[in-house]
Amino acid sequence: MSVLPAPMPERTRVLLFLNGALLFVFALFVGWQWFIALLGALVAWPLIPPIEMHIPGDARAWRMVHMEAITHGLLLMAWAAGGPWLRLSPRQHRVFFWSALITAWLFTVPAWFNALAGTRGLAWNGGPFPGDITANNIIFLFGWPPLVAVHILFVLAVIGLWRTLKALPKG
């Protein structure tokens, strides 16, 4: 196996794109929950009559998780599409891949738990926000891996792109 910087392997690109598509599926899943939370019912007329349901959380929290899923899904798809320009070593590609997945999924899924639990997960013991302290603190701790991973991810992206730029003919 070569240790020289090379474009992202196709399998890695496909796996990133697949995870991006799965985040879109997750966005649909939470989108329905947001819809039900807003209306207090599952409304799919004329297919079925309205079914009264209660899903906790406020609209802002549901919007957040829905947009996290869409944004991170698009970002994973963009990394996959730009993979040929990311000239990294095999080890750097592995670190990039796992950093991308940790960032995408662990910024998105805990936001869903925030919506369900009525927490924010932004500060230990809830900070100025209301909600269950235990749930908040667990969600807060899940925020640290993606906080580190996103910085690694973008440093490696810049390194890989810089290498490609340097290898291109001038002019």
What does this structure look like?
This protein has one domain (10-167). It contains 5 helices and 2 strands; from the N terminus they run αββαααα. The chain has helices at residues 10-39, 59-82, 90-117, 133-142, 144-167, and strands at residues 41-44, 48-52. The protein has a two-stranded antiparallel ribbon with strand order 1-2. A hairpin with a 3-residue loop joins β1 (41-44) and β2 (48-52). The mean pLDDT is 93.
Concise synopsis of the structure shown:
Helices cover 68% and strands 5% of the residues. It is mostly helical.
Main β sheet profile:
2 strands, antiparallel
Uncertain stretches of 5 or more adjacent residues: none
Topology pattern, helix = H, strand = E: HEEHHHH
The domain count comes to: 1
Overall form: elongated
Radius of gyration, whole Å: 20 Å
* Major beta sheet, strand line-up: 1-2
Straight-line N-to-C gap: 33 Å
Work out the oligomeric state of the chains in this entry: single chain
Number-wise, the strands total 2
Class based on secondary structure composition and strand pairing: mainly alpha
